[in-house]
Amino acid sequence: MMKKLLLASSLLIASTSLFAAEHWIDVRDAGQYQETHVSGAVNIPLSQIDQRISEVTQDKNDTLHLYCNTGNKSGKAEALLKDMGYTNAVNEGGLKDVEKTQTMTKE
């Protein structure tokens, strides 16, 4: 009985780690982020993405949804993160693209 319980516990722990998390990252500057951003998004300006991405996740399999004003900076962030080994960095484009599918927060 104890072996079955341990096996079941081990499988549960292993299966939960198979599901990568999803994170929204706004790569614009702090002032733009404060005006409006995706609800729940973390602000890491493009110039700081390589130093600060570990504040959001260290799991390189997590999905990183990146956006900016036009898609240019988020495209650069996507390339940089992929070079760093993040396999699921996604350029979601500019705010107008993101607003169609995500809830926005204005401060």
Report what the structure shows.
This protein has helices spanning 2-17, 30-35, 49-52, 72-83, 95-99, and strands at 22-26, 36-38, 42-43, 63-68, 88-94, 104-106. With 107 residues, the protein is of the alpha/beta class. The strands form two sheets. Strands 3-1-4-5 form a four-stranded parallel β-sheet. A two-stranded antiparallel ribbon has the order 2-6. β4 (63-68), α4 and β5 (88-94) form a beta-alpha-beta unit. Mean pLDDT is 86; it is low at 2-16.
List the helices and strands and how they pair.
Blueprint: H1 2-17, E1 22-26, H2 30-35, E2 36-38, E3 42-43, H3 49-52, E4 63-68, H4 72-83, E5 88-94, H5 95-99, E6 104-106
Parallel strand pairs: 1-3, 1-4, 4-5
Antiparallel strand pairs: 2-6
Characteristics:
107 residues; four-stranded parallel beta sheet; alpha/beta; 24% strand
Brief summary:
With 107 residues, the chain is α/β, with parallel strands linked by helices.
Q: Largest beta sheet, briefly?
A: 4 strands, parallel
For the terminal residues, how far apart are their CA atoms?
A: 55 Å
Radius of gyration from the alpha-carbon trace, in angstroms: 17 Å
Helix content: 40-55%
Number of helices: 5
Strand percentage lies at: 15-25%
Order of helices and strands: HEHEEHEHEHE
